[in-house]
Amino acid sequence: MEWQKKISDRTELRFWLANKKSLSKRVKNIARFEIVQVRPTIKKFLRIEVGKFKNFKSTRLYLREVMIYADGQPIMYARTVTPKINLRGFWGRMKRLKDNPLSDIVFEQKVIKRSSFAYRIYSKNDNLSKSVRRIGHDDSNILVSRQSVFDYNKKEALLTEVFFKSFEKLKFIK
Asked: Helix, strand, or coil here: 169?
C-alpha cells in the first residue's frame, strides 16, 4: 500500500488525522499523557525515509523513535528522521528531548513550516508494522499512519506517526 494524500475515515479519528497542530498538547488536555523514547538496538530506516534524504547514506541519518501513551494505553508510535548534519543547528534540540514530545520544539517556532500529510493504511508486512513489532507492540492494533515534513530554514525533519486502535477512544476537542 502506497502513501496517499487523503484518507477516508468517518470516525472521530479523522479530526485527529487532519490536525496540523500539536496532538501531544491536545492529548494532555484530555488524558494522562506519557512518552517513552525507544532506544533501538538496530536503526532500521524505512525506504521512504532514505528516499526523502537520498543525498545522505543511512549512516548519516538520525532516528528518534517514541511510544506515546494516554491513560496507560499505547496510542501512537512516532519516528522522526533528519540528516545528522542538521543536528548542528536547530534540530540538535531533538537529541535532548528524551521523553518529551517533538511538539515542544516545533510548535514554538513560527518559522517552521509543516507539509501536507500523506496517509497509509495498515499492512502487516510493511516496515512500519515491523518497527512496531520490533519494539514489542502488537502491530494488529495499528489503524493508520501519517507522515509530514517539518522545515526549518530549508533543513527538514520527517515525522511518521502510527495511530493505534486505542486512539479512537480519545475525544477530539476543537
From this structure: helix
Reported as a single tens digit per residue, the pLDDT across 88-124 is: 989 999 999 999 999 999 998 889 999 999 999 888 8
SS3 string, the chain, reads CCCECCCCCCCCHHHHHHCCCCHHHHHHCCCCEEEEEECCCCCCCCHHHHHHCCCCCHHHEEEEEEEEEECCEEEEEEEEEEEHHHHHCHHHHHHHCCCCCCHHHHCCCCCCEECCCEEEECCCCCHHHHHHHHCCCCHHHEEEEEEEEEEECCEEEEEEEEEEHHHHHCCCCC
> In terms of Cα–Cα distance, which of 168, 174, 162, 145 is closest to 66?
162
Among 31, 5, 3, 27, CA closest to 18: 5
pTM of the predicted model as reported, rounded to 2 decimal places: 0.92
Spatial contact of 91 and 157, defined as CB atoms under 8 Å apart: yes
CB-based contact 67:38 (threshold 8 Å): yes
